[in-house]
């Protein structure tokens, strides 16, 4: 797996297309949730896009043979962009063809590491789909809210506090 971390301005046109297509394929089509994914947060100067690309043997059938497939993605937002005084990890996804291979856990581990590297001593707050509560709990997140509905999907707020 080849991991890359980039700001919006560092993304190539192809990378931007791949990540927006995969986000749309999963959050709009697969989850049958009609919403606008483009919220201007992607373009914040300190927003970071974490992308995991597959090696040629993992390449998706829709990719050109020499083009690695985008397998995993997460968006890291700086403090005060989504939540006051806290950073956030969102748009967490793994290509459906690779979900049973542990890629989600690799993605969350790297996303947390990068968030803590760029914004040390800052708590990470997420708006998680409720059915993924145990997944995020495995990465140290605790539930801090009741279930709420967002775009027709049950969600919860969860928090990772790096300072005990």
From TrEMBL:
Transmembrane segments: none
Domain named N-acetyltransferase: residues: 6-163
InterPro entries listed in its UniProt record: Acyl_CoA_acyltransferase (IPR016181), GNAT_dom (IPR000182)
GO molecular function: acyltransferase activity, transferring groups other than amino-acyl groups
Coiled-coil stretches: none
Assigned keywords, A-Z: Transferase
First and last residue of the signal peptide: none
SUPFAM superfamilies: Acyl-CoA N-acyltransferases (Nat) (SSF55729)
Protein name: GNAT family N-acetyltransferase
Taxonomic source organism: Oceanospirillum sediminis
């Amino acid at each position: 797996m080849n991991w890359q971390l980039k700001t919006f301005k560092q993304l190539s046109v192809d990378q931007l297309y791949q990540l927006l297509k995969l986000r749309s394929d999963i959050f709009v089509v697969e989850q049958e949730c009609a919403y606008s994914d483009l919220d201007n947060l992607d373009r914040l100067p300190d927003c970071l896009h974490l992308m995991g690309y597959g090696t040629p043997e993992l390449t998706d059938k829709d990719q050109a043979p020499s083009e690695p497939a985008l397998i995993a993605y997460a968006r890291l937002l700086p403090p005060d962009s989504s939540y006051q005084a806290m950073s956030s990890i969102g748009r967490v996804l793994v290509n459906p063809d690779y979900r049973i291979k542990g890629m989600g856990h690799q993605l969350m581990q790297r996303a947390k590491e990068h968030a803590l590297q760029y914004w040390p001593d800052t708590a990470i707050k997420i708006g998680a789909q409720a059915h993924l509560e145990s997944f995020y709990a495995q990465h140290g997140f605790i539930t801090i809210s009741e279930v709420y509905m967002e775009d027709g999907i049950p969600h919860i707020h969860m928090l990772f506090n790096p300072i005990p």
